[in-house]
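Q: Hi! First time doing this. I have a protein sequence and I read that you can turn it into a structure. Is that right? Here it is:
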Amino acid sequence: MNIRTHNSIDNDLCGNPLIVANGYSKVELKTALRMAVDETGLVHGGFVFGLADYSAMIAVNHPNVVLGAAEVKFIKPAKAGDVLIAEARVGEGEGRKQTVSVLVTRDGTEIFKGVFTCFTLDKHVLIN
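A: Yes, that's right. Below is the predicted 3D structure, encoded as structure tokens:
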């Protein structure tokens, strides 16, 4: 796997890449109690979104890829201790803009899906 972006990401919070191929990625996140919002172990949706976003970024796999927009749906909750799998597939694109479909599952059950609009830039977004 030659990952060309997001190299300093915290894999414990955003997931560990299992597969990175041309226009595709598969990332696993083992949720933890520190991600929970209450005593039931409900995982904050931001961690599920972060997993999906990271999967989209490495599916595009450009050093200067950024997220421009996301249209997402939370289908089922995640609980601390769940193992989540995100699969991202790059779809249509035009110039610097690419659309990535992401599906997150838990034991084969869909819990989140979304379409991420990604842009590849000439230079890092924080560099003038």
